[in-house]
Amino acid sequence: MPALPLHASRFEPIKAVLFDLDGVLTPTVDIHVRAWARLFTDYLAERGVEPAYSEADYFDYIDGKPRVDGVRALLASRDIVVPEGTPDDAPGSNTVWGLGLQKNDEFFAALEADGVVAYAGSVDFLEASISSGRQVAVVSSSRNAVSVLAAAELGDRFTVVVDGLVATDAGLPGKPAPDTYVYAAELLGLTPADCAVIEDAHSGVQAGREGDFGLVVGVDRGVGAAGLLASGADIVVTDLAELVDAVSEPAVAPEHA
Description:
The chain is α/β, with parallel strands linked by helices.
């Protein structure tokens, strides 16, 4: 009997694959990084706050979290306190929501100007997952997931998308809490143990581990394999193309005594 592809045994019991979006399916994390930098570089400089904003701040305080949680965490790192505000605040208002909305405007301007093309290896892995009979879903902290999927021409692959808007409507806490991933599994009619979580951020990997998911895969887009493993990933790859053969094996139903 020929040997199974590397990691195939880890996918045998997996009935669904739950994908993060930014940094996993699409390189939109780069657009987010630039949008956050434009927001907070000027914001901190105008107030004379040190240290100045750096890319490390994105990974330390913002990456993978809902937008307003990222604003709160960055401000707290500089001991800045502003009113919470509301989703109706004008973008750029000196509130948590106003700053988050300004960042969102920056993101959409970049997305409209440059567009987005999905990672080729991730698309291959997605298609292999579907062809193997597994269900798929997107679980993203972004409130723009549907727009990004449409821009990347991936919207027709997913009937379940749990994004920041869905999480708010359902009263679910964002990553690193596991609730949004658990909710996606429930919408597919499955348990966390039936599902694999695919993540590139520490907060998302932690969500997968805290939710007791059947498999947690880290995609190292620069965070570092050691850090993703420490956060709870079972497997770390640099490109999901590495797992195409593994996920191509059909799911195996668990044996019952």
